[in-house]
């Protein structure tokens, strides 16, 4: 089965589509639980699947600072195509639990070396990542 190329989309098109997926009630519930995203994660995964792997788009989405865009960036990135310093900066900038957990897990599983996740001072797990505090 031949793989098809990722669709050509701009950052503005993706951000506009994310805006249509936002549910204000979901955002409020998530905010009470310490997170800030308002998009249903199933819908976000479906969008990421359609977009496929796009490291440049992931960089642009991450740079927006929006929680939903950053979660999508985690899903469409390819950590092996990022420099260790760039991964370090992204891990440090991830202020939301889902972004932190998603980025560090993808980094741990798919970066050049698992030790590159330790560059930000994050603990290197021996088995799996610990659950977020309070859960």
From TrEMBL:
Classification via InterPro entries: ARM-type_fold (IPR016024), DNA_alkylation (IPR014825)
Top-level lineage group: Bacteria
Residue ranges crossing the lipid bilayer per the database entry: none
Pfam families according to UniProt: DNA_alkylation
PANTHER family hit by this protein: DNA ALKYLATION REPAIR PROTEIN
UniProt name for this protein: DNA alkylation repair protein
């Amino acid at each position: 089965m031949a793989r098809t190329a990722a669709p050509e989309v701009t950052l503005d098109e993706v951000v506009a589509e994310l805006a249509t997926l936002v549910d204000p009630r979901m955002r409020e519930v998530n905010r009470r639980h310490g997170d800030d995203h308002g998009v249903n994660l199933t819908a976000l995964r479906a969008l990421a699947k359609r977009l496929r792997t796009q490291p440049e788009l992931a960089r642009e989405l991450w740079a927006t600072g929006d929680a939903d865009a950053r979660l999508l960036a985690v899903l469409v990135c390819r950590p092996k195509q990022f420099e260790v310093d760039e991964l370090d900066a992204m891990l440090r900038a991830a202020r939301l639990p889902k972004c932190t957990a998603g980025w560090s897990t993808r980094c741990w599983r798919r970066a050049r070396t698992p030790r590159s996740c330790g560059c930000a001072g994050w603990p290197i797990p021996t088995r799996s990542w610990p659950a977020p505090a309070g859960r």
